[in-house]
Design goal:
Blueprint: E1 2-5, H1 11-23, E2 39-43, E3 46-50, E4 56-57, H2 58-63, H3 71-74, H4 83-100, E5 112-116, E6 125-127, E7 133-135, E8 142-146, H5 172-178, H6 188-209, H7 222-229, E9 243-244, E10 247-248, H8 250-258, H9 268-283, H10 294-324, E11 337-338, E12 350-351
Antiparallel strand pairs: 1-3, 2-3, 4-6, 5-8, 6-7, 9-10, 11-12
Helix pairs in contact: 4-6, 4-10, 9-10
Length: about 350
């Protein structure tokens, strides 16, 4: 449960209430990655939000694992098959629905729903006991119903500076006009959330690609090292942030480029990661108008997954057959292959002669 004081029916609290009600009524698969509001009520000048019990959050999972029994659900596969990464793909899809896919619940009021989260960070992505990630804490959010020919008027409500986009440093008097859409382009405010999502995805990849194997001597959490690098060789006002006065910090781009080295060259996983690196580059565009939208993120993730599965199905089978086939100068002729036998977790094809 979350309780918030309501000084004179504060509009921020009421906005959070409306966002939570709308996202709790989403009927698509995106609902699986958004917190559900069970009920809300006022008592003693406080608004009380009641949610299902959630075990932990992504910040604790990444930096303080193991947390109860959550980690085993998310740690047993390599990228891109890893369940935690698949959940992050779900979070990206949920964010896109929050931005432009909410349904107008008011009869007689015509227009589309426009919503921004404005405080995406690991601590605001909750993790259930079975490993589901859910976007939560809409306390900084902005929601409007915009007339068919109208444009949203966004009031910036910045959250955690670490995950905030570069435009968060604009003087307050500029935000009222800067975050409004110009022409037919996507509202700049929506792309603010895309930057925050890129920060979170980067941290998740650092965590997944630097995990220790069982039995290894424990070492420093790689995210702690990454956090330190965000404080180095930069002005104090940019400490902890993913950008400085010149753009995305070099330690961020270097870290992301190094993800590629974790995979065998030209393997399906390597090609997948190359696509993800390009995606992060688009999400980390310093200038808001050059940054891709949340729907672009979803589309590119889907394309990357489709290409990975297509190449994996072809490449893995051909490779495994070559590995298990007799030498070319042998008199033996292979008569056939079948997929891995039931219960065989190795996923290797099996020759007829071994059945």
């Amino acid at each position: 449960m979350k309780s918030v004081k309501i000084p004179d029916r504060d509009h921020l609290v009421l906005a959070e209430q409306e966002v939570l009600r709308m996202v709790s009524n989403i009927e698509s698969s995106a609902a699986e990655n958004i917190i559900t509001l069970l009920t809300c009520y006022t008592w003693h000048n406080e608004m009380h939000f009641v949610f299902p019990y959630i075990e932990t959050d992504l910040f604790k999972l990444l930096r303080q694992e193991p947390i109860n029994d959550v980690s085993p659900w998310l740690n047993d596969q390599a990228l891109p098959e890893n369940e935690l990464w698949k959940e992050m793909v779900g979070v990206a899809s949920a964010l896109s629905v929050i931005h432009t896919g909410l349904i107008n619940p008011f009869e007689g009021v015509h227009g589309r729903v426009f919503a921004c989260h404005f405080d995406l960070k690991p601590a605001n992505i909750l993790v259930t006991a079975d490993g589901k990630l859910k976007i939560g804490d809409f306390g900084h959010s902005n929601i409007q119903i915009v007339a068919p020919q109208g444009k949203p008027k966004v009031m910036y409500r910045g959250g955690d500076p670490k995950y905030a986009a570069p435009e968060s440093r604009l003087p307050l008097e500029q935000t009222e006009t800067w975050f409004q859409p110009h022409g037919d382009e996507t509202a700049p405010a929506l792309k603010y959330d895309v930057w925050s999502l890129a920060c979170i995805m980067t941290e998740v990849l650092i965590y997944l690609l630097n995990r220790q194997t069982p039995g290894e001597v424990p070492t420093e959490n790689p995210l702690v090292r990454f956090d330190r690098s965000l404080d180095q060789r930069t002005q104090s006002e940019f400490n902890g942030r993913f950008f400085d006065q010149r753009g995305v910090k070099e330690c961020v781009t270097t870290t992301i480029e190094a993800f590629r080295d974790r995979f065998s060259p030209e393997s399906p996983a390597s090609r997948y990661m190359s696509t993800i690196i390009d995606l992060l580059s688009g999400m980390f565009q310093y200038h808001n108008h050059e940054r891709i939208s949340s729907q672009d993120v979803v589309d590119k993730l889907y394309e990357a997954e489709t290409a990975y599965q297509d190449s994996r199905d072809t490449d893995n089978l051909a490779f495994e057959i070559r590995q298990h086939s007799a030498p070319a100068d042998d008199d033996f002729k292979e008569i056939g292959w079948v997929p891995a036998l039931p219960g065989n977790r190795s996923e290797e094809p099996v020759s007829f002669d071994k059945m």
